[in-house]
Amino acid sequence: MSLLGQPIFRRRADAALRRPLEDSELRALAVLVFLHDIGKLAPGFQAKGWSEPHGVPLRGHLECGWLWTRTLDAKSLAGTAGHVARWPAIRTWLLALFAHHGRPVVEPESGLASPFYTLRHVAYDWKAEEQHMGEALLAWFPDLPTVRPPPASPRFVHFFCGLLTLADWIGSDRRAFPFEAAFRPDYWRTAQAQAERRVREIGLSPHGLALRGEPGWALISDHVAPRTAQAAIGTVPPGERLVLLEAETGAGKTEAALWRFATLLAAGEIEALYFAVPTRAAARQLQRRVNEALQRMFADPPEAVLAIPGQVRAGEAAGMRLPDFTMLWDDAQERPTRWAAEHSARFLAARVAVGTVDQRRSAGFR
């Protein structure tokens, strides 16, 4: 919900739906997102964290999510499951829901043994935990019986899949969302405040992204006047959706692209930039150039992320992964906006990233 509270993301949702997304539909989508890890209730998944698995077969939570849908009755999720089960195209939404790790998860065959059962020798009751989740749904979404998700068109479901994957990455970061073992009915207010703050901190809102001046040539370069190819880009109106510039090496295409970026940013059309080049070597060289240009363009310059798997670089700083999933940066700074640089799946969540064409294809657009 915090992501869809950002103007850019909300406009993209509207574009994917081909009409404005209604607030009641947004809440229905939030209910679905609430259920995306429901498979973790299964004893077979919980046993992964037990010191003694007690002979419980280990299971993956995505498969268990599908199998949970076969356990539903009138009392499931404190009586809320029946409302969700009656939503139009619910199977399509479940397909999207259980694909939140970025790949489709095929619904298991009917003969597969259920991972949901009562354990006599372990103090874990998955049904009681499901009851807590249902109570939370009722408390946090009191209008659940009346809301419905938007039509499950392929275009919008594709958008939802990407948004859910991004939200899952953000919400799984314990630096922003410290783990709480005990159920707390009012946690929703805490989570909303933390989500709003984290979305700002990691650069997924327009907050703090201010150009030093008007998006003209003087903002991009200290050369007196742009070259011919660059000047041509400067005349293209912000509403133009596709701009192709073909020019010889050394004609200043990078600066032309930055000028276009500044123009669209000032017009509120975009909030991020990705440079896609053919090779990793070219990306490394260009990342330094782009990072230097950002210092000139912005009052509080974002760091250009190097979008090359296996390398962790934001601006001029290099990072090293530590065993506890944290990062050690060689400039000893901890900047939340470097979150996007810490894993290849997040590269295109950066405000500015420089990488290869292949990386763009594998990660998708922000």
From TrEMBL:
Keywords: Antiviral defense, Endonuclease, Hydrolase, Metal-binding, Nuclease
Molecular-function GO terms, alphabetical: endonuclease activity; hydrolase activity; metal ion binding
Ranges where the HD Cas3-type domain occurs: 1-170
Alphabetical list of InterPro entries matching this protein: CRISPR-assoc_Cas3_HD, CRISPR-assoc_Cas3_HD_sf, P-loop_NTPase
Pfam families assigned: Cas3_HD
GO biological process, one term: defense response to virus
Protein family according to the UniProt entry: In the central section; belongs to the CRISPR-associated helicase Cas3 family.
Protein name as annotated: CRISPR-associated endonuclease Cas3-HD
